[in-house]
């Protein structure tokens, strides 16, 4: 997600990733290599959605690039605020498409 956003000039100036406190720190380590700030929240997608809402109220919703909980689910855009398997399936399709072009 980060490399593609950078490649296409769509990485915000202050990118934010949200993860729950029960999620391992691997995502945070990867994100930090791209200059993405990590926000830790309590367990549950409602707390990830709450952070998206707070960014929206502050006029910074475009800063949100990704949120996840290790046990279940991903949110790669600000338009969905709860668990969404469709979004994860879309990301997997996009990943397959990219790697197919790479051989």
Automatic annotation (TrEMBL):
Signal peptide: none
Protein's UniProt name: Phospho-sugar mutase
Keywords per UniProt: Isomerase, Magnesium, Metal-binding
SUPFAM superfamilies in UniProt: Phosphoglucomutase, first 3 domains (SSF53738)
GO molecular function, a single term: phosphopentomutase activity
Domain Alpha-D-phosphohexomutase alpha/beta/alpha: 2-99
One BP annotation, GO: purine ribonucleoside salvage
């Amino acid at each position: 997600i980060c490399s593609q956003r950078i490649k296409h000039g769509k990485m915000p100036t202050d990118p934010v990733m949200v993860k729950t406190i029960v999620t391992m720190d691997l995502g945070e380590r990867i994100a930090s290599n791209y200059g993405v700030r990590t926000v830790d929240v309590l367990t549950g997608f409602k707390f990830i959605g709450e952070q998206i809402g707070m960014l929206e109220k502050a006029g910074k919703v475009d800063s949100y690039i990704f949120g996840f909980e290790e046990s279940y689910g991903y949110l790669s855009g600000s338009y969905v605020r709860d668990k969404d398997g469709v979004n994860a399936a879309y990301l997997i399709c996009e990943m397959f498409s990219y790697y197919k072009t790479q051989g």
